[in-house]
Amino acid sequence: MTLFMNACAFLVNVLTLPLHIAEVIGLLSFYKRVFPLIVYKISISYNDKMNDNKRELFRNLDKFYPTKGSLRILELGCGSGANFEHYPTGCRITCIDPNPHFQKYLKKILHVICKTTKYFYLYKTGFWR
């Protein structure tokens, strides 16, 4: 079993070698800053094209409201918040993204949808550098 685990660890290290090299020479931090901007720009046109499809996908969320309290949604990899406008009114959203540079774009869309970011909290984790 140990041999198998060592082989798997070696394979993962080989596959992620380009990421390790990019981090050493400073490209990974540049990528983490530029990627959210690119996603934000693309998501604007993508959301316009996919609006009807997303509305259809999210239309049944109202059925999941609990008898007491509000609907709680966990959004993993929320990015710039492209799905937020499709969530039901009054739900509580917890969103997680490993890239802290999405925060600026996430706040923009929250101001448009929620009119406030009063309840927006940033929790830094070990993933954020």
Automatic annotation (TrEMBL):
Please give the SUPFAM superfamilies that the UniProt record associates with this protein.
S-adenosyl-L-methionine-dependent methyltransferases (SSF53335)
- UniProt xrefs under CDD domains: AdoMet_MTases
Name the Gene3D superfamilies for this protein: Vaccinia Virus protein VP39
User: In Gene Ontology terms, what is one molecular function of this protein?
Assistant: methyltransferase activity
Transmembrane residue ranges: none
| InterPro entries reported for this sequence | SAM-dependent_MTases_sf, Thiol_S-MT
In terms of PANTHER family, this protein maps to: METHYLTRANSFERASE LIKE 7A, METHYLTRANSFERASE LIKE 7B
| Listed name of the protein | Methyltransferase type 11 domain-containing protein
Q: Where is the organism placed in the taxonomic lineage, from the top?
A: Eukaryota, Metazoa, Chordata, Craniata, Vertebrata
